[in-house]
Amino acid sequence: MEWIVEKQLVSPTTGTFFALASDTNNTKVIIWYKGSYFIRSGNIIKTGCFGIVINGKARNIEVMHTFPFNHTVWNTFTSTISCPGNEGVIRCESTRSDRCLFDICPYGNKPLLETTG
Q: In this predicted model, what pLDDT tens digit does every residue of 86-98 receive, in sequence order?
């Protein structure tokens, strides 16, 4: 089966990701996963007995759960998951003060360095 990713979210407090994807029939699902690869908007996911292929490359991700898309659920995720990259504005440095479980920011942000005066 082939899916096109429409949107993505990063959950820094859980170290997991969410992807909103649709197939050729416009059936939409939310994929909750973890791993070292960050699925972005426009990526093409193919699934089958061979595993998961993203943009033509096998990727080692663990799908924790896949469920039918629901606007209310997706809106709840977007309003309650706090990450600067999810807001669509990519900064050179992250201003997050909460704990982030990602060693490397999926969006490419760098943590602010604390200075002592």
A: 887 666 565 555 6
